[in-house]
Amino acid sequence: MVEASSVEIRKVNKYYGQFHALKDIDLSIPPGKVTCLIGPSGSGKSSLLRCINFLEEYDSGEVLIDGQLIGYETPGGRRMAPRRLRQMRSTIGMVFQQFNLWPHMTAQENVAEGLIRVRGMRKRDAMERAAEALTRVGLSDRMGNHPSRLSGGQQQRVAIARAVAMDPRLMLFDEPTSALDPELVGEVLNVMKALAAGGMTMVVVTHEMGFAAHVADQIAFLEAGELVDVDVPSRILREPEDRRIQSFLRTYHERNLI
Amino acid sequence: MDLSIFSEYGPRLLSGFRLTIICWLLGTVFGAALGLLIAVAQRYGGRAVRWALQTYIELIRGTPFLVQLFLLYYGGPMIGLRLDPLPAGLLGLTIYGSPYFAEIFRSAFRAVPLGLIEAGRAIGMTEMAIVRRILLPVGLVSALPALINFSIILTKETVILSIITVPEVMYQTQYMATMTFTYLEGYFALALFFWVFVEVISRLGRRLERRITRHLIERT
Where is the ABC transmembrane type-1 domain (chain B) (predicted)? Predict the structure, then answer.
């Protein structure tokens, strides 16, 4: 694996019209570590995640990948050239809540597509590499299937293979298990755990507190566009100081006692 | 009913059939290609481009095909555009169909989930590659029924080319009917031809549709 990236988020602000979605966010994401973003719906955690590969444009502040500003030429300056943005994105893998596999391609073609179009690999080599990536996520027997013939968990594993095959230095996960039936969540989390163990920098927006507790190196809690706290899981989850985190966890526990 | 005329005028009618099919095919292919170009340009073009194309769409959609054809064929020479009937007819069909095709493609593109496009962007694909590899193939699947539908409408618009003397099947039938006073036989045969023609297209279309959506409906 290529070396892992670090991400530095400084004073990032994001507006949707009048709505202030991200407020002066400062967050350091160390290389090779897993950072989980948690918080109630609408807190801005997905927006923040999407700012990291500039799928969402932040309005002010800086997002630095290995010290390199993404999205803009200079802080607050002109938009970065599309070519440079694409080049930076190609080293950042992203996994979506809705999988977003291309429905007209088989699992293997989904994984090979980026290798061919972005890395410029020949089709044969790309398909071979795709097969390896799919084998690593336990789908060697599903390579010829279209997404419509795969379960949600299998689709999400294909999506992870699609990102990982590009040799990313950083992986972004946007609620990767939220669209899955409960019994399929485990297989996806296991693949993610294996990635984390391999030393990948990961930023994960999640509602899976178990995953956050056991796999995360740090947890950032957001509410109403503010970064309330960042710390190791044991502190955030066991002895949160802020009342907003306490009340979030209380709701979470109540719901899971039933 | 006098059927002997068909042996005499058969070759004429046959060549008319052939030309009608050719006009329809080329009109559909060129019209769809132009429509596709318009839809892509509308999606990626700036404000001026979008406005110009929208105006074009409104203008063409808002005027009768026959009027457009007369403008092209009879009005064209006055601004130095001198076309034979067949090229004028094909150009006319292409222009006439393009805004409808453009609208079909535009709405099909809008139906492509944004997530599929974001997945392409996130991986570093160029917008061009995203159009070619994701937007078009996924959009085409949802556009197909509407595309076939409009191409069926176009089959029947081809008869208008007879008015500018393109010797397609309407023209030939008219010729035969006037020469022999066989209006009933002639136009009945013509109606039958179009009905069969459309039936063939719609069956082929359905088969094509089943084929390209196979991977989408195996599991629901």
Answer: 13-205
A225: domain range? Answer: 1-91+170-258
CA distance B50 to chain A (A): 22
CB contact under 8 A, B215 and A163: no
Residue B220 confidence (pLDDT) above 60: no
What is the pTM assigned to this prediction? 0.86
Does residue B40 belong to the interface with chain A, where contact is any CB pair within 8 Å? no
**Got the DSSP string for A232-252?**
-HIIIIIS--SHHHHHHHHHH
In terms of domains, do A81 and A205 share one? yes
88-107 in B: which are within 8 Å (CB) of A? none
The residue out of A111, A133, A167 marking a domain boundary is: A167
Distances (CA, A) of B191 to B28, B39, B143, B155, B156: 21, 34, 28, 12, 10
Q: What is the CATH number of the domain that holds A218?
A: 3.40.50.300
Taking only the tens place, the pLDDT of each residue in B164-218 is 988 988 988 888 888 888 888 889 889 999 999 999 999 999 999 888 877 765 4
Range of the domain at B154: 15-216
Per-residue pLDDT tens for A122-161? 999 999 999 999 999 999 999 999 999 999 999 999 999 9
Distance from CA of B122 to the nearest CA of A (A): 6
